[in-house]
Amino acid sequence: MKPFVLLATRAEDVPADEEYALFLRYTGLSPDELIRVRLEAEAMPRFELDALSGIFVGGGPFNASDPLEKKSPTQRRVEQEFGILLDEVVARDFPFLGACYGVGTLGAHQGAVIDRTYSEPISVVPVTMTGAGASDPLLAGIPATFGAFVGHKEAITQLPASATLLASSPTCPVQMFRVGENVYATQFHPELDVEGITTRIHAYADYGYFAADELELTLAAVRRADVSHPSRMLRTFVERYAR
Fold it and tell me: Among 237, 236, 203, which Cα is nearest to 218's?
């Protein structure tokens, strides 16, 4: 089988390593089958797409909607690299699934309006499929409304004509979309489970995703929710595109 790639941007080793472990667990891939590239530490390689089965993008600290002068040199480099990669991915309709930061990468590439109107604190939200989502093969076997972990400072307020809306939540109208037939992005985190979200809550406690005195409340809220369906799409992605 040709390998998949996980493009990651987390600088903190503990959540970065756990993110990779979660993608391995829920895709069912081995480390040889899922190659991780930590873009915060190294330049994106020039990928030969014909040598890959598909591309995943993990979450990260970068906000596409930040003013250019507030973006670090690393963020500007990563955004430029994603722009070049997505030119080819979209043109070829190559299998791509961006989780959370996928909205900032694919959304920005397609000209979506991205701002802080629909930010969501770290929490569990009910995500509901659109008609297009209900018939999309990546969401096969998942209930029409399902709980998902979120936590983001920006989101899409307006999709471009090139995108198909697949899912929404009451507090964020664009939770998942598709470009073409094989290029996807989610605002929620399909890779996360309770252990994973707990690690991230502790790792990013000072990053402004929730108030300083809300740590225990945030932990309690995510621990009592049932989030078991979103990870299924990771295995489905692999089953659909492995070659």
Answer: 203
Pairing of strands 113-115, 183-186: unpaired
pTM of the model: 0.92
For residue range 15-28, list pLDDT tens digits in order. Answer: 899 999 999 999 99
Compute how many other C-beta atoms are within 10 angstroms of the C-beta atom of residue 92. 14
Q: How far apart are CA 134 and CA 26, in angstroms?
A: 21
d(CA 46, CA 95): 17
Cα 91–chain centre separation: 21
Pairing of strands 120-129, 145-152: antiparallel
Paired sense of beta strands 113-115 and 155-158, if any: antiparallel
Q: Please state whether beta strands 54-57 and 113-115 pair in parallel, antiparallel, or not at all (unpaired).
A: unpaired
d(CA 86, CA 71): 20
- Give me the amino acid identity at 123: S
One-letter amino acid at 141 equals: G
> Are 125 and 163 in contact, with CB atoms under 8 Å apart?
no
DSSP for 68-109, please give it: GGGS-HHHHHHHHHHHHHHHHHHHHT--EEEESHHIIIIIHH
d(CA 124, CA 28): 24
Domain positions in the chain are 4-241
Judge whether residue 224 has pLDDT over 80. Answer: no
What is the per-residue pLDDT across 62-81, written as a single tens digit (0 to 9) for each?
999 999 999 999 999 999 99
Determine the CATH number of domain 4-241: 3.40.50.880
